[in-house]
Amino acid sequence: MAGEPQPDCLFCKIVSGEIPATIVRETETTVAFRDINPQAPTHVLVIPRLHHADAASLAAAEPAVAADVLREAGNVAADEKITETGYRIVLNTGAGAGQTVFHAHAHVLGGRGMQWPPG
Ligand code: 5GP
Ligand code: ZN
């Protein structure tokens, strides 16, 4: 059921501690940890503790938690001192857009220049 921990979900296992991660921030509703395959000097994932498949599903079901994820993305950027230079929040949605883990997550990328449009 949406919102409940999913036994086969990698990010639910990071929330529970079953799989280790380099956690940089935690709140009552979110966890932020370093991406295992960083694409920029700062590459942190911010996830809700609740399981929802993607960011839009999370926002539809739990709008306050979706806001928490975005606020935490900004807090990560401040901690990493990339607020001034700029950073990108990425919400890949669907396999065709590069989503590989179907537990909502925001990528926070920064510390280098960013191209537009994205690939
Ligand atoms: P997506 O492709 O779904 O937008 O992002 C999933 C992200 O999760 C990828 O950037 C990938 O590197 C990261 N990732 C996959 N497995 C692990 C893991 O076990 N630990 C951490 N910290 N990141 C992971
Ligand atoms: Zn999950």
Summarize the structure in words:
The protein has 119 residues and is of the alpha+beta class. The chain has one domain: 2-Layer Sandwich (HIT family, subunit A), CATH 3.30.428. The protein is built from three helices and five strands. Strands 1-2-3-5-4 form a five-stranded antiparallel beta sheet, covered by helices on one side. Strand 1 and strand 2 form a beta hairpin. Helix 2 packs across helix 3. The longest helix has 17 residues. The relative contact order is 0.21. The site of zinc ion has 6 residues, from helix 1.
Task: Put the structure in a nutshell.
This protein is of the alpha+beta class and 119 residues long. It has helices at residues 10-16, 55-61, 63-79, and strands spanning 23-26, 30-34, 42-48, 87-90, 106-110. The chain has a single domain, classed as HIT-like (HIT family, subunit A).
